[in-house]
Fold each of these.
Amino acid sequence: MTDNRERLRRFVLNASRWSGVARMAGSHLSGLGAILMLHSVTAVPRAGLGLNDHLSVTPDFLDRAIADMKRAGFSFISLDEMVEHLATGRRCKLATITLDDAYLDNFTEALPVFESHDTPFAIFVAPGLIDGTVQAWWEVVEQLVMMRDEVALPPTVEGAPFVSSSPAEKLVAARHLCELMTARVPETMRQAVLDEMGGRQVDTSAFMSWDDIAAVSRHALGTIGAHTIHHHNLARLDEELALIEMRGSADVIADMIGIRPRHFAYPYGHAQAVGDREIRLAGEAGFVSAVTTRHGTLHPEHREHLHALPRISLNGRYQDIGHLRTMLTGFTTFANSRRRVVTL
Ligand SMILES: [Zn+2]
């Protein structure tokens, strides 16, 4: 997220709290509830430039967030139940917790929180991250820049090396590399490029094992969803490969744990990663629902858009219960997008 967008978002969150506008928005904007989005959940701070701070919250914040939502009258239900509920159109305060990428800490640090609150949760798994076929490139880029005073590009990618000796240079270099990885390097080439850059030598977050994933799928509170095979941006793939990535991730997970995922999360989930084509493909791949990373609460209209469900991010940069309360009113969606019902 750019600094400007982040400043705007912080302003909207704060302004609405001061003015009480969010409270007055009432159920018109808050709708049926929300699907929460998390990634890593850990008490261990990670050394870095802060580029990925939005992807990690502490178990303590998760615990306080759930407790506060329960006090406010939210009931936590599974993704299957949420999809069923959407069909009824009834207005209740309902929430579903989802976590993308299957970080190991979801199993070791978040699961005890879910168990203590008896809250269902769903974890979206990309088999390539579990097998190590692909790395979490967003962390690799950050770590390469942290470790080196200059980051050279491999011959397959044209461009001068990035100087990264001072903290300011490291930040600029990391942003350029992120842009390169998401816009210039083809999705299917990204890991080969990282390998050429020495990406296998850096430390990245650990992901759950297949045994952990199978244990979650058998857990009374757990659901396993699919997240493509290689964590690719589907909008950058041709249609055939996009469908293989979607359907194939469910196939691999079904093979490994014996249960076929019914729900899907689009990697990245933003406007440059999910469009009408991907929504159609999610249905063709057999998923009953698919979530984006678009910011929004759920409304009765979403029963017609089960493959474009927005979420509310528990963003590591805003570990503030007040911000969460404001987002759950739906006010921030309305203020940011001028829309009550967010699909694409
Ligand atoms: Zn992801």
Amino acid sequence: MNTIPNVKLNSGYEMPMVGLGVYKASPSETVQAVEWALKGGYRHIDTASLYKNEKEVGEAIKDSGLARAEIFVTTKIWNDDIVSERSVEALKESLYRLGMDYVDLLLIHWPVKGWQKAYVDLAECVDKGLIRSLGVSNFKTHHLEAIKGISKLVPAIDQVETHVYFQERRILEYCKSNGITMEAWRPLGGAGSRELVDPTLVAIAKAHTVSPAQVALKWNVQRGVIVIPKSVHQDRIKSNIDLFSFDLSGEEMEAISSLDRKDGREGRDPDEYGQ
Ligand SMILES: NC(=O)c1ccc[n+]([C@@H]2O[C@H](COP(=O)([O-])OP(=O)(O)OC[C@H]3O[C@@H](n4cnc5c(N)ncnc54)[C@H](OP(=O)(O)O)[C@@H]3O)[C@@H](O)[C@H]2O)c1
């Protein structure tokens, strides 16, 4: 079984460097994927109220027989709940669906209108023990900078889209110098990824007898970024966490760094939300 290194967050809690993402996994796929993941050594699951599978994540964790304290669970407050100023109620609803009395990491899903109030309200839920670490998602450096004006609590995590073709180095540098850990969503480049057939990645994978997906994930881990690859296939779930029997050389890390592209973004630009 794989042993996954942890990162110590600014909240004092430890977070595994690799987790299972369950976006677009149906409820039944989620139960199966989480079961395979926990059996294969994962101890970190990333869900969201948007994904409509928090209940199944909670059930699969319960059925695993593992202690709650052994598993790191992330969920997120969806945009509608932020805009309508009901983030605390939404957190309680997520906890109810998960069947848990606290969440390890709670993220503000996008910096939509009202995110500042949500952040302040949710910071109080850290004090109440409902959230162990509070973080944000899809925050650019100007959003992160704005938090300094509204709360003393530095977010533990910024979960952003980042992968080989979209490296977000500026946000990573900002996070590193402000005690925030960066986490990558879409770390494989998503369904039908262009990156997993990139000749540089393929050549590096061949040299280490691993897959291009493992190289893409290891590159982020080696630069200090947490990854949460999604899969509903057992063989992929297994290999996506098998990242610690090889290391990328400095030269290989640099070769991958040169693959960053201006058109690399796959999802929405957070500034489209107008905040
Ligand atoms: N905060 C946010 O706004 C946000 C946005 C998007 C995602 N997320 C989180 O980040 C997680 C990961 O992002 P994502 O799901 O968008 O994309 P991803 O993990 O980069 O890619 C998932 C896709 O890659 C396939 N795949 C998985 N392992 C593979 C492998 N070893 N080789 C080839 N293909 C493989 C999966 O197919 P199969 O499932 O069929 O194997 C799926 O189609 C999500 O599940 C979610 O938890 C957060």
